[in-house]
């Protein structure tokens, strides 16, 4: 249900989505048709959702870009809450130094978004510079990074319940505690067996300790995560009366995530990019004119010291926002078109071009390369196929599929194909009979002597169970999954013969 104005009765009426289809609702009085139009919208932006209302100058953007922003606005690494000190979320993203946008729609204040800011006001230059900003990539000023631009943190909660570690889960057996004089925990754990607030933890560091009340056995657990973190706060969980033993705690870890190459940023116009010099080729195809207007408006707002209203449908063709912002920039002493002369950071000379530069509100998104990168040299393999397992958490490899294989074949990369599909995958040695071509029939002779020491010194030969010969066995290199396939086919009465030739 949503409110509209009933023109006949001059009252507010709540309508549903089904009846709205059969009604004639105008945006304003100029569009009302006498005798046909029955209702009127209270505002031009009433058709937009609460998220869409937060996009500045959205009427100047291509509609898919506004939809992208509605999705990315929910993925910002902003300020989700103010009570994070008292919460124990599984994972919580937070930006350290958020700012309030200087160019904002009217609904920004209506929803009180200033108390939950989502990004930072960034000075953005639109220039194709050095080639490192191609295909939505961006260049970030190092001094801005050093001063804390878009620095963020991830809060992760870990629940440690000693009852699950104990064999007897119905009575208190294990409790947290530290052993006096233990060099492993000295200076690293408090007397209660828990790390002090602010402790920096790396893989292999002492995490917490506990002991058994019955046997007196003492045990120290270590931090087993690849990413270092800080102990932000610890919550001791007891019973309702607070009289129980300390056998359950919640440790909240803070992981520092400063921007690195590969992290995702986005303006409020669906212009996502990785890491802020903005490439001008991102404008023509995306048609996000609202971002250009915001850049000029932000520059003017910073110069005059007040915020601008960026509510959609406020400006008209006769009074375009760019003309107004250009005049305000002129009044502040800047160029009407928002351009400036810049100096090259490489050789210090002035660039022979007018660079469009302004202030755009940029959001840091929660898609970070630290959570997604996957690399593997050696690691666990599948017991059946002897190929690398899949999955980032298990230390697995990335699947080299049929399309990747076809791409290398089309390029004629024979050695690269052999490296990816054999040497780095499931390379194995197999015995095959040259006479009958079977890879399953060769077998090793039994030891001639029962004495193991004597048998080890004697050479054991390979024979073919079909041909009954020993001089026809050759050793070849094949993928292990091929041996598995031949065995599977043999199970359904399909024989595979190999044509072996010596080169």
TrEMBL record:
All residue ranges annotated as the RNA polymerase Rpb2 domain in the record: 396-499
Enzyme Commission numbers on file: 2.7.7.6
GO BP of this protein: DNA-templated transcription
MF term (GO), any: ribonucleoside binding
One term under GO cellular component: DNA-directed RNA polymerase complex
Predominant place of localization: nucleus
Cell membrane as UniProt keyword: no
Protein name (database record): DNA-directed RNA polymerase
Source organism of the structure: Mytilus edulis (Blue mussel)
